[in-house]
Amino acid sequence: MATNNKLKKVKAGRDHIADNFYNALSLSDMAQHAHISPYHFLRVFKDTYGETPNEFLIRLRVAHAKKLLITENHSVSEVCEHVGYSSLGSFSSLFLKQTGMAPTLYRRKLWALSAEPFCFPAQAIPACYARHFLGK
């Protein structure tokens, strides 16, 4: 169990990840904002949040990519760059692993459900999920 001081430090590192997920972040960068060593940060982060800092970073990036794929007319390559990946292959592979479908298929399926372009299909998505997903 992490002490209160360690929790504050790990939260600072987590906040740094959340605020800068679209940039290239290394474990050292994340740990530096927590003011603890990288491997200690990794251990305490996993104990505290149940996922590694990298898993958290991937989850944030994929969630933001989902939003961009639905609400914007950017290409998948542009979405890839917007969420912090330099490799389209890595992005597509992580997106597929997280969502169960490729980014293009994800976009195509949700756009097919919507009556208006670049809008979430409100009738197909529960309001609580849409609120969480859109941040509204």
TrEMBL record:
Record keywords: DNA-binding, Transcription, Transcription regulation
InterPro entries: Homeodomain-like_sf (IPR009057), HTH_AraC (IPR018060), HTH_AraC-typ_CS (IPR018062), Tscrpt_reg_AraC-type_HTH (IPR020449)
Gene Ontology molecular functions: DNA-binding transcription factor activity; sequence-specific DNA binding
Pfam family of the protein (one): HTH_18
SUPFAM superfamilies found in the cross-reference section: Homeodomain-like
PANTHER family: ARAC-FAMILY TRANSCRIPTIONAL REGULATOR, HTH-TYPE TRANSCRIPTIONAL ACTIVATOR RHAS
Name under which the protein is recorded: HTH araC/xylS-type domain-containing protein
Species name: Pseudoalteromonas rubra
Upper lineage: Bacteria, Pseudomonadati, Pseudomonadota, Gammaproteobacteria, Alteromonadales
